[in-house]
Design goal:
It comes from Senegalia massiliensis. GO terms for molecular function: DNA binding; DNA-binding transcription factor activity. This is GntR family transcriptional regulator. It holds the Pfam family GntR. By secondary structure, the protein is mostly helical. It folds into two domains: about 10-75, Winged helix-like DNA-binding domain superfamily/Winged helix DNA-binding domain (Arc Repressor Mutant, subunit A, Orthogonal Bundle), CATH 1.10.10; about 75-120. The chain has helices at about 10-20, 35-40, 45-60, 75-100, 105-120, and strands at about 60-65, 70. Helix 1 packs across helix 3 (about 45-60) and helix 2 packs across helix 3 (about 45-60).
């Protein structure tokens, strides 16, 4: 992962895990990669990864089983809300970028419709 210098690394790791969950690569009850393995994977301090995991647990997205690791929540409503939250972030970012380029609502809708018709 290439980290963005404008966003704290722990938040980027949280977002990475949230996306894995939203895409279904991590499912309800799945074990999340260990703090040590995640820190080695991204070449970051284990304390940074632990902070990400703590924040995910505080948001009830994950839970910890003592001595066994961190697991994805089994609460389907939380999973549904997570996916919708990520969807809204993507849409809002897209709309902000399109407005910055000078497109209005009608133009944006037409562009999206055209792209959907092409099969994208």
């Amino acid at each position: 992962m290439d980290f963005n210098n404008n966003i704290p690394i722990y938040i980027q790791i949280m977002n990475y895990i949230k996306r894995l969950i939203a895409k279904g690569e991590l499912k309800n009850g799945d074990k999340v990669i260990s703090v040590r393995d995640m820190s080695e994977k991204f070449k970051v301090n284990p304390n940074t990864v632990q902070r990400s995991y703590s924040e995910l647990e505080r948001a009830n997205i994950t839970f910890t089983k003592r001595g066994m690791g961190t697991f994805v929540t089994e609460d389907k409503e939380i999973m549904f809300n997570l996916k919708n939250e990520l969807c809204k972030e993507i849409i809002n970012s897209f709309l902000d970028n399109m407005k910055e380029l000078g497109f209005n609502k009608t133009e944006i809708i037409n562009i999206i419709s055209d792209e959907l018709e092409r099969g994208n």
